[in-house]
Amino acid sequence: MSATEPEADTVRGFFILFAMNKAVHRHITATAIGLTIAATAWAQRPIVQTNFTPDPAPMVYNDTFYIYTGHDEDGRHDEFVMNEWRVYSSKDMVNWTDHGSPMSLDTFSWAEWGAWASQCIERNGRFYWYVCCVDSSTHDMAIGVAVADSPTGPFTDAIGAPLVSDPGGYIDPTVFIEPDGNAWLYWGNPGLWCCKLNYDMISYDKNFTISGNHVEKVKDGVYKFIQTEDSFGGPEKLAEGTAFTDYKDLYEEGPWFYKRNGSYILAYAAGGVPEHISYSVSDSPWGPWKYAGQIMPLQEMGSFTNHCGIADFKGRHYFAYHCGTLPGGSGFNRSTAIEQFEYNPDGSLPIILPTTKGPDPVGTLNPYSRVEAETIAWSEGLKTEPNAKTGIYVSDIHNGDYLQVREVDFGKKSPSRLTVSVASALRGGTLNVYSGGTDGQLIASVKVPPTGGWEEWKSVTVPVTAPVTGIHDLTFAFSGRKGCKLFNFDFWKFD
Questions:
Q1: What is the pLDDT of residue 6?
Q2: Which residue from 8, 44, 84, 322 could staple onto 104, CB 3.0 to 4.6 Å apart?
């Protein structure tokens, strides 16, 4: 950091100070998240184990549930080391497909660092992804927007400059489009700002005005909300000498804005550090806001921050958040988790507590069509990597690693063979497929040969050794010489 970057240094230092105050580095064990390879343990917190995936933002499009996340880089850090954003999807809420990183800091020519929290939304078949990062020309935090014709990208910078920027905490954008077509953008830490987006989704209405003593005008079309105990559960400023833990609530960051049953809902990370999730409600998209209570009370989940997103899918309600419970996790190595919930009879949000189980399945997986290896319910020891020809694949496979998929529907007739696509520059290894965990029935065994390179792919077909019908969870277990990388895995398919 150079001396010419005072604002960026202030913003970054602000969050580092938070972390220092709360001793965020914690040692998380596999036992803590109930991790086993037995058939009886199908843990799904977090939903992704191959990368750290903070700041989840759900989006439902057609018959698919998408999660847009940040990416905390591997390793132990004392700050947020984030260079890209990632996308995952599911049709059944238990198996998640990795779509890689369709957008990074390099997408924005003006971005210096950051790649913090974001949200993607669809309008008229195009997808607008709002992000925050530091503007290299001013060293201010800024909100940018990228656009794509597919929910998985690739995304390009829509305007070649920040949408909004300020020396303050312009981070964590959330966006919502009403049925009447009006679109709203909220953001901020420790303040809360909003503007009305134009129909093009890449500019805002500078003539829009909000009246009332609950806001202050920052610039044409941009307003900051006045935080009070009535609106957000606590005072905007603490009394001198007051510790963070001495107050009940207060908007901090990470807003999530949506509408349900005529009421506008703003969920947010609250209370300072460590954070919990609370929410406020309003009769209009620009407030005034009324504090409504906590959603996810303060929990010991290995992370000093939290960040939520809420969405409906196939008639069920889902709450996404992040935690540090993946092995190697911490306040700077966070992962997305999801809980299913029900609204209270009066329409209010309930208290949602984290589980290791995650949501129930809402669909099945078809084993007779190509299934990407990066479609995973749970895994141990694995990573994913991109390739221009094959797309995302599973890598870093060592002896004892495995992946699991759930709700695989074989139907009434057993398949006769299994085909896998693999690559190995060394000696290969063995891929065994079990019904349930490794204590279940062995269905097929594949001897993976050397293929001439780590991305020199070969399809290997083997017979199914035990008949399998109906719906099963499957474990793909990997073995071979200890210590070395064995092979890469691209897809599988039963016939």
A1: 38
A2: 84
